[in-house]
Design a protein that fits this description.
- This protein is 2% helix and 57% strand.
- The chain has helices at 70-75, 145-148, 437-441, and strands at residues 59-62, 80-85, 91-96, 104-108, 111-112, 136-140, 155-160, 170-179, 184-194, 197-207, 216-229, 234-249, 264-281, 286-303, 317-337, 340-360, 364-366, 369-386, 390-401, 407-417, 422-433, 453-466, 470-488, 493-514, 517-530, 542-553, 556-565, 568-570, 578-580, 583-595, 598-605, 613-615, 618-619, 624-635.
- The strands form five sheets. It has a 22-stranded antiparallel β-barrel. The chain has a five-stranded mixed sheet with strand order 1-6-7-4-5, with no helix packed on it. Strands 2-3 form a two-stranded antiparallel sheet.
- Strand 9 and strand 10 form a beta hairpin.
- The protein starts with 58 loop residues before the first strand and ends with a strand.
Length: 636
């Protein structure tokens, strides 16, 4: 493994020495030239998100909404709960329409990010993503395994990096920010654009400061993106590296209200991503596309013992894990006429996870494990337009993991335009998730006979597009999750036994009220039932959010964003299941652009100074101010 085991099991206290962080980040740019044809307008697009055929049911978060924090922007979307568990340095919790955090597939430019070696069952930790280096986030809220295979059980979150094609020919940007709780962030990027593509390199470093007390995050990240048009096709490449140093309140420990004082865990993570995407037309109605992705993720966590309360105590442990994954996919798109598109393809995933650690059971117990698995896939996707008013989409996929039965998933969706303003839509989709490597291989609790978790989601909705009202949509959804993995204390192992039903109603509205004012609002009603007698954690029945963007005048812009969440259950070890009160939060910000190359911003987060808590004893930041500035140099 990458680091020797150093643990509170052998030292007084519960801390270990921090690893050396990168002290400098550099940015450079270089020119790439190639003798290629400039006429690439008819080339097939490179798909890095959602579906290879038309899929309009996707929520979009633009870069401007991500400038302070990625998770809080995702949390404002209808049907989604997202936060850092244990403060700024804690791991992520993202629930899409009542699903568990590990039911959502997370992609970065099409590269899979879910880590099946962690104790969270294969969820992804958003603390490893630097918001200054991403362009937008797209969210699909339904089972999507017919498109993406395993892990897309309740939804897909696709993170997209900025394309150098969209930038000025030659551009260098640098920015910095500070907050009132001693946090800071610095970023820089350089872009070289040319007629047939572009190259961009970005770097960033961030320290959360004292936003959430003893829970802190330090992160360094670098991103490289290259887009190139050739005479025959289009190529896009992404490389991303990030390292984090973190301290956080241990999950379910009670935070600052823990009976014996806060239990602080430390965690270091490293992530390396590389992806290639290519598309090329073979004839007027046939094209091919494919991608090759690689990811390498490692985590070193020192988690102290959590004293018992209503629930049993949790022993101290060291987790040193690593996951390597290769993925290849090839697809052929056939368009026999303008109203019909069919995609045939196949894929292969190879992943290897390993762990090395210690568990304190009164004596140190080694927890070494290693597991390798391969998945072969074939799929077909169809998009059909029946005249100007009806569109149909369908997909089917078969995944064959080694040593397991094949998994068949499907999607059937349709849209009907009743008039110029009204549209109806509906979809039935299925999904599945393979048992995580942690669940089937971690010593003491491993169960290699676990079955995949499965689910089926149904959604119907209506949408109104009006010049006076704007865009208004309403959707009703229901999802049944089956075969959920749970820990059985009597058998002392993981078992398949739970079923969860989630249903809800969601409203979405957006409107360009005036030339200078744009408004956006979401409302979510959600109800979840579990086959167990225990309530589900962190599933509020009601949530709402709204945002107004204003153009105040020459060089000035502002926004105001508000959100509300009703009460929900949580389950800390000291108290057992308790209900936390609801909260509301107001954020406001202003931007001043005195010249084309300078931008000054001020963001006031939690302007009401509300008491916001997603977990017992772990409050979110109180009111704080972030000041930032950036400068951009452009050339030809």
């Amino acid at each position: 493994m990458k680091k020797p085991l150093r643990s509170s099991l052998y030292e007084s206290g519960f801390s270990f020495g921090a690893i050396v962080r990168a002290s400098t980040l550099s940015c450079c740019v270089f020119a790439v030239s190639s003798q290629v044809s400039a006429d690439t307008s008819n080339l097939a697009p490179i798909i890095v998100t959602a579906s290879r055929t038309n899929d309009a049911d996707t929520l979009l978060i633009e870069k401007e909404e991500l400038r302070v924090d990625t998770l809080s922007a995702i949390d404002r979307l209808p049907g989604i709960t997202a936060y850092n568990n244990g403060g700024a340095g804690g791991s992520s919790f993202v629930s899409v329409r009542g699903g568990e955090p590990n039911f959502t597939l997370v992609l970065f430019d099409g590269i899979r990010l879910n880590d099946s070696t962690n104790s969270a069952g294969g969820s992804f930790d958003f603390g490893q993503i630097e918001p200054a280096l991403i362009d937008q986030v797209r969210v699909k809220r339904s089972a999507t395994s017919a498109i993406h295979g395993a892990d897309a059980l309740s939804g897909v979150i696709s993170i997209l990096s900025p394309s150098p094609r969209a930038q000025h020919a030659h551009q260098f940007s640098a920015g910095a920010s500070v907050n009132s709780e001693n946090g800071y962030a610095i970023n820089a990027s350089a872009t070289y654009g040319f007629d047939t593509g572009g190259l961009s390199i970005g770097a960033a470093t961030r320290d959360s400061g004292e936003l959430t007390g003893d829970s802190q995050l330090k992160r360094d990240a670098v991103l490289v993106r290259w887009d190139q048009d050739f005479a025959a096709g289009k190529l896009s490449a992404t490389a991303y590296h990030a390292e984090t140093d973190r301290e956080a309140y241990a999950e379910d420990s009670g935070g600052i209200l823990a009976p014996l004082g806060p239990v602080i865990e430390t965690r270091d993570t490293t992530i390396d991503l590389f992806g290639l995407r290519y598309s090329q037309p073979l004839s007027g109605n046939i094209s091919i596309s494919g991608h090759l992705n690689y990811s390498d993720q490692s985590s070193f966590a020192d988690i102290p013992a959590i004293p018992g309360g209503v629930f049993d105590p949790v022993p101290a442990r060291i987790d040193d894990t690593r996951l390597k994954r290769w993925e290849a996919l090839a697809a052929l798109t056939y368009r026999p006429h303008p109203g019909l598109e069919t995609v045939f393809g196949g894929g292969y995933i190879n992943e290897r996870g390993e762990g090395d650690g210690l568990l304190d059971l009164g004596f140190p117990l080694e927890t070494e494990f290693s597991e390798k698995r391969d998945v072969l896939s074939v799929f077909i996707e169809n998009s059909l337009s029946l005249g100007p008013r009806i569109d149909l989409n369908s997909a089917a996929r078969v995944d064959k993991p080694d040593d397991r039965s094949a998994e068949l998933t499907y999607k059937v969706a349709g849209q009907a335009r009743l008039s110029e303003e009204w549209q109806l839509n509906g979809a039935v989709e299925s999904g599945y998730k393979l048992p995580s490597i942690f669940a089937i291989a971690y010593p003491l609790i491993a169960n290699p006979d676990l079955e995949p978790e499965t689910g089926t989601s149904v959604q119907v909705g209506a949408q109104l597009n009006s010049d006076s009202i704007g865009r208004l949509s309403v959707s009703v959804h229901a999802t049944r999750f089956r075969n959920l993995v749970d820990f059985d204390p009597e058998a002392f192992t993981n078992v398949n036994r739970r079923q969860v039903d989630s249903r809800g109603l969601e409203l979405e509205w957006s409107n360009q009220i005036t030339k200078r004012t744009r408004a956006l609002a979401y409302v979510s009603l959600n109800d979840t039932d579990s086959s167990s007698e225990q309530p589900l954690r962190n599933r509020p029945d009601f949530s709402a959010s709204t945002r107004f963007d204003f153009q105040l005048g020459e060089g000035w812009a502002a926004y105001a964003a508000w959100r509300y969440s009703s009460e929900f259950f949580t389950s800390p070890i000291p108290t057992g299941f308790i209900e936390l009160g609801g909260f509301d939060q107001l954020d406001v910000g202003v931007a001043w652009i005195p010249a084309a190359d300078w931008t000054f911003k001020a963001d006031l987060t939690n302007g009401f100074d509300s008491n916001i808590s997603y977990a017992y004893g772990m409050e979110e930041p109180k009111r704080f101010l972030t000041l930032s500035l950036s400068k951009t140099l452009r050339g030809r």
